Amino acid sequence: MFFKRNLKKTPLDRIKDELKQKSKNIPAASHHLTLGDRKLLEKIRLVTAEHNLNNVTRTKAYLDFYLRYSEVEWAFLGHMVSRNGGYNMTDLKGEFLTRLLSKKERNSFFTFLERGNWLIFQDIYPQFLIYEESLKQNKPLFYLLTYLNVSTFMETIWNHFWKNHDTYILCIALVINEQSYLEKRVVQNPVYQKEVLNKFEFFLQDLLSFNHILFPYGSGRLKGQTLHQFESLHERILLGKRLYYVLFDQEFLPQAVKWAKAHPHTGSRKDYWPHMFNQIKEGIPGFPFPLRIKNCQLRKGAGRIYSPKLENAWKNVSQPEAEKGDWFDDVSVVDYLERDEINIDGEIEHEYCKTLERLELAAVAKKTINFLE
After folding, report:
1. Cross-strand bridge partners of residue 216
2. What secondary structure letter does DSSP report for 54?
3. What does the alpha-carbon distance between residue 209 and residue 218 come to, in Å, rounded to a whole number?
4. Measured distance CA(131)–CA(125) in Å, rounded
5. Cys-Cys link to 145, which of 33, 62, 131, 150 (CB 3.0-4.6 A)?
6. DSSP state string for 229-261
7. Residues facing 140 on adjacent strands
8. Interaxial angle between packed helices 103-137 and 152-164, expressed in degrees from 0 to 180 and rounded to the nearest 10
């Protein structure tokens, strides 16, 4: 009778059971590390650090890994989302936000974005390298994840993936992991709460719907989703799931991969809209500019919007060590792994165009006010 009931268990039931069992045996892993294990862990730390210099190097590393192991879908999702992180960083030195935010505020926003970007990479990329080495040795090495301070949740998921090869569960689990990992380290961090999340300008961006995640494809086309409640862990996880459905649509995915391979990430929005953005300033310094954007086109004779490369906007930052601790404490997060029966077309171009118009209007108004002062 027991075996019959056990056979009826779903993959998610089995994952929950294993996580419940692990939570009862809280002591850290007691697996004996061989010399080979220790050398591998050291190599993984070094390789991860080499790629974790800045947003551009991280973003490239995600894509390179996906092109080697396309079954690890998060690597491409992470690549495309990381591109957007780079755009947000360079926006802080671009045409509009230099007029709307003080230098101190822009530096605080960059520190916030960079810390989150860096933390995610140093947590997830070692997982990828453990998977790669497991394939090479033809045996699961996920017991090593705990020595890299990776959540016990992901150790369970990777072992499940090794046996069942469920690419969807792995990808959404990594979404849950990344957002849960950031929650206390960044989103609830008192410094970022005070200097970034509680600032009026942050909510201004939210009201302006400036939290777009854009997936370029084709010739200047965009798909994506918008996040309106950044401080909600639940909303960020749901956004990740929606982004998955947009990106891994059977018809759309090949177009997105083709675009990503053909357009190396620089951090500049010129990467996807060269007709609207440029990496050099085309306006006259100190000269008030009229409104230039209408229906995602520049008005006749108007110069393009300044959007610098990341390397020209920000220097590399040396980050303090990641805070220790496992975020996992509730098996109910497994419920997020359920597939949703939804159809998302990812239409975002119109909304994004309206955002650019509102942002430009705000920047012109701020410049005019400053001029009158």
Report:
1. 222
2. S
3. 24
4. 10
5. 150
6. -TT-HHHHHHHHHHHHHHHT-TTHHHHHHHHHH
7. none
8. 40
pLDDT digits (tens, 9 = 90+) for 149-208: 999 999 999 999 999 999 999 999 999 999 999 998 998 888 878 878 777 556 556 555
Determine the Cα–Cα distance for residues 53 and 42; give it in Å rounded to an integer: 18
The rounded distance, in Å, linking the Cα atoms of 320 and 323 is 9
Degrees to nearest 5, angle at CA 49 with 48 and 54: 105
Q: Which helix (DSSP H) or strand (DSSP E) does residue 224 occupy? A: strand 221-226
Under 8 Å between Cβ of 80 and 272: no
pLDDT in tens, 314-354: 999 999 999 999 999 999 999 999 998 788 889 999 999 99
Give the Cα separation of 130 and 140 in Å (integer).
9
CA 261 to CA 64: how far, in whole Å?
A: 9
Q: Which string of DSSP letters, residue by residue, matches 303-333?
A: PPEE---HHHH----PPPPPPP------GGG
- Please check whether residue 114 is in contact with residue 58, taking contact to mean a CB–CB distance below 8 angstroms: no
Tokens read off for 218: 């084709």
Instruction: List Cβ neighbours of 226 (8 Å cut-off, separation of 6 or more).
Output: 209, 211, 212, 213, 348, 351
Sign of the four-CA dihedral 267, 106, 285, 209: positive
Determine contact, residues 55/312, Cβ cutoff 8 Å.
Answer: no
pTM of the full structure: 0.92
In the numeric block, the tokens 């990496």 are attached to: 279
Nearest to 182 by CA among 110, 128, 240, 233: 233
Q: For residues 9 and 198, give the distance between their C-alpha atoms in angstroms, rounded to a whole number.
A: 45
